[in-house]
Write a structure and sequence with these properties.
Largest sheet: none
Shape: globular
Oligomer: single chain
Helix content: over 70%
Structural class: mainly alpha
Number of strands: 0
Strand content: under 5%
Number of domains: 1
Order of helices and strands: HHHHH
Number of helices: 5
Length: 138
C-alpha cells in the first residue's frame, strides 16, 4: 500500500508542477498563445483569444490545487479532460497537414508524434493521480 501512496504523491506533484509551469508560460504571453491556438484552425477567430486568456488560469488553478493536495480528484480529472482535448487538437492538426506550434511549453514548432506521446504520459500521470489517491482524501 505504501508504494501506491508514494506513486500517487509523485504523480500528483509532477502533474501539478507541470501544469503550473505550462500555465505560467501561457499567461505570460497571451497574445502569442492566442496565435498558437489560432494555428489549429478549430475555433472562430474571436474565441482564440478567449481560450488563450482563460486556459492558462485554469491550468494554474488545477496545478496549485494538486500541489497543495486539495480537490485532487477534481483537479486531476479536469487536467485529464484538457489533455484529451489537447490530444484531439494535435491529432486534428496533424491529419490536416498543419505545421503548428502546439503552444504547450513555449515557442517552437511541434511534431505531432512526440507531442501525442508526451500528452499520453501526462494522461497516465492524471490517471494515477486520480485512481491511486488515498481513500481518506477522496
Amino acid at each position: 500500500m505504501e508504494f501506491r501512496r508514494l506513486v500517487h504523491h509523485g504523480c500528483r506533484l509532477a502533474l501539478g508542477g507541470l501544469f503550473l509551469y505550462a500555465g505560467f508560460l501561457k499567461a505570460g504571453d497571451v497574445n502569442g498563445f492566442a496565435r498558437d491556438v489560432a494555428g489549429y484552425q478549430l475555433l472562430p477567430y474571436a474565441l482564440n483569444y478567449l481560450v488563450a486568456a482563460t486556459l492558462p488560469y485554469v491550468e494554474l488553478l488545477a496545478g496549485v490545487l494538486l500541489l497543495i493536495n486539495r480537490k485532487v480528484g477534481g483537479a486531476s480529472l479536469l487536467l485529464a479532460g484538457l489533455t484529451v482535448v489537447f490530444m484531439g487538437a494535435i491529432l486534428s492538426a496533424w491529419l490536416r497537414g498543419l505545421a503548428i506550434d502546439c503552444g504547450c511549453f513555449g515557442g517552437g514548432q511541434t511534431q505531432a508524434g512526440p507531442a501525442l506521446v508526451r500528452d499520453f504520459c501526462i494522461l497516465l500521470l492524471a490517471h494515477l493521480t486520480y485512481h491511486w489517491q488515498p481513500h481518506e482524501s477522496r
